[in-house]
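Sequence in, structure out. First:
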Amino acid sequence: MKMLAMRCLVALSLLVAAAVAFANPFKSKIISSDDSVLEITVPGDHFMKITNFTQDGGTDRAVVEVVLPGDTENGGSTNVLTATRIDFSTGANAQNAPEIGNRVTIAGPAIVKITPIVGAKLFITYKKERDEGSGGGGGGASPTVIPIFSPTPGVTPTPTPTPFIFPTPFGG
């Protein structure tokens, strides 16, 4: 019985080690009102998924601001996500119903900024991943050959006449 328990323990520890080694963890940050502006750089071959952005307290609404390098046409930045308020006791949303949180994906290159709000705690959960699917046209992408299998053969046989010998009448 001890041998079976030991084998199960070894197998379980190997599974846990593999899960930890190959997990793609999310990162979470808490931003208090006295913190500095949180800046997250997203490289050109990566993207960032924000799955949770909440706000507890404060009167102003927190936003996720994205700055695109070299984008002076649009003023250089835009707000892409507002925080979901979880405390409705203050501010303009004091009596509103609970809000629904949204998610956003930001493609690099970009700089993501979150400015602290006076009297509020912000909580963000995100994950940066490498863009493995960038081969879909343009920018030096080489075409991928995809073999096509057909249920019909490539060469179609053409019918040829079969020689037929006609019988000749006797005595003719």
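Second:
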Amino acid sequence: MENRIVVSNLLHRPIRTAVSVLAVAIEVGMVMLVVGLTSGLVNETAKRVKGVGADLLVQPPNSSFVMAFGSAPMPIKIGDHLSQIAHVLAVSPVLVQVNMMGGINNVYGVDMSSFDRVTGGFVYHSGGSLQAPNDILVDDVYARANKSKVGEKLMIFDHEFNVAGIVEHGKGARLFIPLTTLQDLMGAHNMASVFFVKCIDPGYTDDVEDAIQQMLPKYKVLSIAQYMSLFTSNNLPGLTAFITALISIAVAIGFLVIFLSMYTTITERTREIGVLKSLGASKAYIIEGILRESTILCLIGIVAGYGGTLVATRVIHTTFPTLSVELTLQWAFYAGILALAGSLLGAFYPALRAASLDPVDALAYE
């Protein structure tokens, strides 16, 4: 009987019900998409660095593990010394810069011969390797997002490049240009941001790491496994605070909408509550009814939020192919719990107010 009354109340006010459900759905969607986008960005970047195929990387002292945040203070001649260390198969110097055209993407300045030795070479979807100083390679994800084709012109860093080839994604960056060209454009002559080191066998990684650390005691030397472990939101500047702020805003939206919805509902149903109390309804019965109504609203909103998030994710992938969104069951559960907790808290005060109404005053309410 009580559930029938709750459902009837929800259907009697369809607009308010729809707004409350939408608020909860937005809350759930915001939480899942914010975490999904940040996790996708972090994990995608880490996977592409791993996809280079190196066993170790060498960075300047006090540099950020996020290569795009660093500069290029390392002399390129360091690579010659690294290549002479026992068990080292190949060393590739790379200059890293960020390009804002067509999305935020890393650009690698590479020496093709050494980069191919470390990575095993690109897989070409069309076109071929870098031959001229103004050639550029783009990966298939970037090409699909920007409708790039072999032979067309591409403006990067206010410089016109010719698309020489489209390659399989996953080898560090989405854009690749000759190392010397990027050095000239950035004013970083004979400098590199990172050295990728490939051992003759992965089993020698620790030995080579120790040898490099002895040679360059102040430099940052990381195995790829160590580097991957750094890619968490806690290690990225300000990312945890950003996620927390947006999640807090989402929860606040759900809390306030449910609070206002339940509060106005209590005001409109004052006489009804007076009738129930005059018939012997206890305070616990009144509170339970209000909280049950809020819970049903929230559960419908959570389901709608899950569906909306899946639709939004598909739209993002279609509109912005270079963006990666990683949705997880863990954060779907957390988003649902946060929405439910916020809704119950938002309904609690209106429920207490309803339970404390005097039956005589409630029946006389106009």
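Remark: The chain is about 55% helix and 15% strand.
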